[in-house]
Write a structure and sequence with these properties.
Helix content: 55-70%
Number of helices: 7
Largest sheet: none
CATH class: Mainly Alpha
Protein name: XRE family transcriptional regulator
Number of domains: 1
Order of helices and strands: HHHHHHH
Keywords: DNA-binding
Distance between the termini: 39 Å
Number of strands: 0
InterPro entries: Cro/C1-type_HTH, Lambda_DNA-bd_dom_sf
GO molecular function, one term: DNA binding
Organism: Parablautia intestinalis
Length: 124
């Protein structure tokens, strides 16, 4: 696994703890009770003041029904995602099926218009 930026990894974890907790409509207090920690600890992790240890991070994944790669913002090719990529993935996951389909359609339109890395954009 390649994680080139420890700060980015910590930012992804803090954002994703909050994201997946809220997705389940769980409060900080509720997650804290599940994990046997204080709500202040959850708040501290989500604000980025502290980070959970690996054992606690695995327990968080179990409580939020999410994989370790997802909570860390690591893509399937084992590279760390940028904050923007992580935010886009989380947005996609919040959308219903129609919204997800439309987002993919828009992304494909951008690709067809030539918005590809290393290429000049075509005139629309």
């Amino acid at each position: 696994m390649v994680i080139s930026n420890e700060k980015l990894l910590k930012e992804n974890i803090q954002k994703n703890i909050a994201f997946y907790r809220k997705k389940l409509k769980m409060t900080q207090k509720g997650l804290a009770g599940t994990l046997g920690v204080t709500a202040a600890a959850i708040s501290s992790w989500e604000c980025g003041n502290n980070s959970p240890d690996i054992d606690t991070l695995c327990a968080i994944c179990n409580a939020l029904d999410v994989g370790l790669y997802e909570i860390c913002g690591i893509s399937s090719d084992n590279t760390g995602m940028s904050a923007e990529e992580n935010d886009l993935l989380n947005l996609y996951r919040l959308l219903n099926e129609d919204g997800q389909r439309k987002l993919i359609e828009r992304a494909n339109e951008l690709r067809e218009l030539g918005y590809i890395k290393g290429e000049n954009a075509k005139m629309a």
